[in-house]
Amino acid sequence: MTGPSFGARRLKLGLFVQETGHHLAAWRHPAATVDDGVSFARFHRLARLAEEASLHFIFLADTVAVRERDPAVLGRTARATVLEPLTLLGALAVTTERIGLIATASTTYNEPYNLARQFASLDHLSGGRVGWNLVTTNSDFESWNFNRDANPLHADRYARAKEFAKVVRGLWDSFDDDALRRDKPSGIFFPAEAMHTLHHEGPHFRVRGPLNLARPPQGHPVIVQAGSSDAGRELAAETAEVIFTAQQRFEDARVFYADVKHRLVRLGRRPEHLSIMPGLMPVIGRSRAEAEEKFAELQALIHPSVALSQLANQLGGVDLSPYDPDGPVPDLPETNGPKSRQRLLLDLAQREGLTLRQLALRNAGARGHWILRGTPADIADEIEHWFRGEAADGFNLMPPVLPRDAEDFVRLVLPELRRRGLFRDGFEGRTLRENLGLPRPPDRRHAAAQPEALP
Amino acid sequence: MTGPSFGARRLKLGLFVQETGHHLAAWRHPAATVDDGVSFARFHRLARLAEEASLHFIFLADTVAVRERDPAVLGRTARATVLEPLTLLGALAVTTERIGLIATASTTYNEPYNLARQFASLDHLSGGRVGWNLVTTNSDFESWNFNRDANPLHADRYARAKEFAKVVRGLWDSFDDDALRRDKPSGIFFPAEAMHTLHHEGPHFRVRGPLNLARPPQGHPVIVQAGSSDAGRELAAETAEVIFTAQQRFEDARVFYADVKHRLVRLGRRPEHLSIMPGLMPVIGRSRAEAEEKFAELQALIHPSVALSQLANQLGGVDLSPYDPDGPVPDLPETNGPKSRQRLLLDLAQREGLTLRQLALRNAGARGHWILRGTPADIADEIEHWFRGEAADGFNLMPPVLPRDAEDFVRLVLPELRRRGLFRDGFEGRTLRENLGLPRPPDRRHAAAQPEALP
């Protein structure tokens, strides 16, 4: 089944899944079911919903810490307890059949051998449906759980991440695709020349290899990247096949899109081999007024201390307590946190003359991602506008309350997108890579003959 | 359903699962199916078999490296490619209902925060059926994949392991059992006092905590330990609830058993709170002659280079190439490898006057574990003898060819054990901890009132 396309482009949609929804106060909403806590059933239901709708993937975030010092503030959020994504993905891999499965993992607080193995195993378990959202981790909270006083510097994190990704991809190529002959009479399980020992020696890692695992069904699991700073874009252009980014305005998104695609081409890659997918929180109403009301209902449930705490984290862990919440947003010092996110927030405050509290509440709903409120037709209009206007190849959907708002999107917005010929109504292939229209990296034996492979 | 017991003792049986079986040459055997490679279906079938037989658990080994330098020797084994155990356990957690699920993970090549999270998540996914086999990793092969030239020294590994286990258990107690109130009207997801920040600072780790995950259903996943050196026994007596050990002779096993139980009591723990479970490879025949024939058939399939390679690894990575394979076993220097295993092998060679090649072949079949050949009655006799004679609380079964020999054990030996009143015919509880008769560690709020908790 081939979906509609515009030139080589096809609209991609992922479902970013979370316990009770992406709105900061989702768990307090009457429509939210929060009784079952860290429940597999909830994630399984969402994955099946995405699969039945032939979305491209579900997406799992990750942090290796709680990101708030004050237990009383943390206790007002549902963010302090989450299932670990790679073990959860193992469970989803064997209880779904077609949907792509993307999980986040940090290059700063893992070792490449361990992560290469876990993603390769997940790719085997799922029959080739796994992706790795590579993050460098942008807060100090994590560092305190890993024997450090602070997160490594931004530049160091990205240098490590680049080498980390290289090692992981090298390890995935430890065996040729057809290495395992399993020939009982001769006793040859695999011929020596079908195994490749990596012998990596770099500034951050020495990894001999080989990985103790057959080559993943996709060759390499799909690589996703979420950093939007200059270093993040460059790493994405070099290594990634999907970018998850925070973009709030069409004009900014177009500039970002053009910049990343340009970098890609400069590196000898084809523009359609990296999908740019901003986060999008759709707030769907039968009328615009209903959508506004739905959103206001959620916003009213946010506790101010929680909003300010989240803003402080998104600004890279600054201490906002010295500032008047009802005064202007101060001229904050540059931190070691997520650079592009800081810029986005400070620009927004300046543009609209927001106070600290107003900025906190604006940011709170979707953690700085684009919140789109309207009727199903309004939402389809904007998606079409961004897609046709080359501001996005698709979106990572962040429904405010889950599962309710994911179900509404599938029921109300998807048919509208399909009616316009914008979205497929089935899977094109078996693997995530096939469904994203990505080439399969050749194994070491075939790599020499195919110079157009990933760098 | 309560099983039979001898005083407080009940026979425990686990099924150690592997791709094609525990015999080194299993994959070459005509009965072995090796076509599906790293296949979830195979592991799922074995887990369901164990569950239907109400065994206590399935057990997954792990190494974070291939343990052979020569690709041609490695290529003669089926050991170079295995699924990663924690992601595999995620898949098994949601596709089984009662069976315990134990996976091995190294304290030398992981960080406690990551491992605490993955095991806690698995405990949530499985409804409280998970165990962690804590190993320190005993070969240099692993170190080369983790930026090192050699494995840390034995004493350092155990010092790190002890602190690692302490941090992991502390992190599992980050939330009280009933912490998550999820009170929508007040907006209190959990009260501040129900969360406990660890603030661990030790020689090997600084981990602030808390873990970002609700307390596991079992409180703590069951802790299994596999080292049998003096340091290994001491760590087990302090932290473990199951010991997986290699014991070949009743007399030696009795001494080991008495020593470990004595250590336990000395530390204020109850002897029945740690089950001693040697590995056991049952080779089952309708007659003794058939069992011998079955075993000989497998032994004949071992390539000598593979047997010698495995022996060298079990001796701690010594280089055996200077020695004549048909000469006596040389007086080898002590290495940094698994101390108890080295001793066991050298004692065996001396006792029986074996050549290097003979020792290699003797060791090859079950990697130094006890191989028991005979009729179902013979095998039940020996199990009963070891159990009643306090040489073992049960066994970790290592069938030579899988699934065939696991099916034979369930079909032929289990009924014999049940007929003798030695083995249960159903699960006593819902969690692994309940099924092993282990106490549930109280949460921090209740710990003060229950001083008999785990140390």
From TrEMBL, chains A, B:
Q: Which InterPro entries match?
A: Diverse_substr_monoxygenases, Luciferase-like_dom, Luciferase-like_sf, NTA_MOA
- Does the UniProt entry include the keyword Oxidoreductase? yes
Q: Does the keyword Transmembrane helix apply?
A: no
Tell me where on the tree of life, at the top rank, the source sits.
Answer: Bacteria
Q: Name one Pfam family in it.
A: Bac_luciferase
**What keywords were assigned to this record?**
Flavoprotein, FMN, Monooxygenase, Oxidoreductase
> What range(s) does the Luciferase-like domain occupy?
23-386
Q: Which Enzyme Commission numbers does its entry carry?
A: 1.-.-.-
Q: Which GO terms describe its molecular function?
A: oxidoreductase activity
Record Gene3D superfamilies: Luciferase-like domain
Q: Where is this region: Disordered?
A: 319-339, 433-455
Q: Which family does the similarity line name?
A: Belongs to the NtaA/SnaA/DszA monooxygenase family.
Known PANTHER family for this protein?
A: ALKANESULFONATE MONOOXYGENASE-RELATED, C2H2 FINGER DOMAIN TRANSCRIPTION FACTOR (EUROFUNG)-RELATED
Cited NCBIfam families: FMN_nitrolo (TIGR03860)
The protein's name = LLM class flavin-dependent oxidoreductase
Native source species: Paracraurococcus lichenis
Starting at the broadest rank, the lineage of the source organism is: Bacteria, Pseudomonadati, Pseudomonadota, Alphaproteobacteria, Acetobacterales
